[in-house]
What we know:
Elements: H1 3-98, H2 103-106, H3 110-128, H4 132-154, E1 158-160, E2 168-172, E3 175-180, E4 189-193, E5 200-204, E6 213-226, E7 229-238, E8 244-251, E9 275-282, E10 288-294, E11 303-308, E12 322-325, E13 336-344, E14 347-354, E15 363-369, E16 392-401, E17 407-414, E18 425-435, E19 438-441
Antiparallel strand pairs: 1-18, 2-3, 3-4, 4-5, 6-7, 7-8, 9-10, 10-11, 11-12, 13-14, 14-15, 16-17, 17-18, 18-19
Amino acid sequence: MSSGRAGRHRLSLRTAVALSLSVVLVAAAAAYDVHERSDLDQARSSLTAARHRLLSSTAQLDTVGDSLARTRSQVAATQADAATTLEQLVAADRQVDGADGSLTLEQLDIATLHGCLTGVQQATAEIATGNLPAAVDSMTGASGACLALDSAQSGSGIAYPFDFPDPFVLTVGDEYYAYATNSAACNIQIIQSSDLTHWTTVGDALPHEATWARPGATWAPSVIKIGDTYVLYYSADYLTTGEQCISAAVSTQPQGPFLDTSTVPVVCQLSVGGSMDPSSYVDATGTPYLTWKSEGGATQPPTLWAQQLGPTGTDLAPGAPTELLQPSAAWQGGIVEGPDMVDIAGQYYLFYSGNNWSSSDYAIGVVACVGPLGPCPSSAAPPILASQPAFSGPGGPTVFTDAQGTLWMAFAAWLPGEVGYPHSRVLFLRHVTVAGGVPAVS
């Protein structure tokens, strides 16, 4: 082989090696680039997921913060109310011990006074340490004594002497269950009685709200029985909008616990300010209905509505709701709420509240209706129950029949001179009579 050919051969060999090496390097670089891009994509995906988790955690933190703030506010209100009661009881205790000649207090049993005073003192101390369930138990234990004191001093007929707004009473055989708007320790308060006079605390009827509801903001419960199931309706704040909407929870017993697995509200009229104050009713044929209030907006005043429920009671039957009542009388102050539809001897009556709930102008009215879906002609008649010497601003009516067939109305009201937050609205019970087709409260 000549030196020229050998040189060319070596050159070709070098070229081939160089080309092969270049291909390997390019392939390696490409593989490395793909690997790096994959790592980069994974890192970006992890970063995005981390950002989403951070946003979710921030939203949850905001929700917890809101709930904590509300709980602190509720504790402060309960503590202030207990402190006021404590001051009044201490003054009364001194008055009895001093035997200053007050005829009413002379008639009181001193042991009863001390029993009420001790219970409220204990509850106050437990509230101060944040032990709210124990405080509720202490106040329940003292309720009988405090109730006896109130009855002796005012003759007001208080049924339960602690905060119990928007009450609803359910008769189950010879037992009575009363439900009310949330307190510092419960989403839905529930108390039980066998005689409508002595009440004991059962606990929280609704341990957990629906997932769509803001925690700690539950109002105006109502319960019906459909088949073997008890259905609890309540108002709650819709997390995504802030308006109140209505949900339903179920239980196999009237005292609960009620379970709410809904992902959306049963009723939520966002176009008219939201829906609240649900009240349930089952007619003589076993058909369930729901009445409620819409808050109203710029073009519509607060309005009372009704619609038939589905067979399980956890949703509405197909169709649109019916308007029952809008404010038209001067005493209503442009507000109607808290509806309760009742069939009395074949005549339907819609009981409701009117005016500002946090004032002594709050009162209870009634209008006759053709059926559970109305119509319910507006009336300029005065309220059937308004402020009296024994209480101020009655509202949240619920009419029920006891085991003996007697008609009662349960309602909440402020005590005289203690109107508005942070004072309590306590539970009252009064007989209902009907004369000439017109209901009256004794």
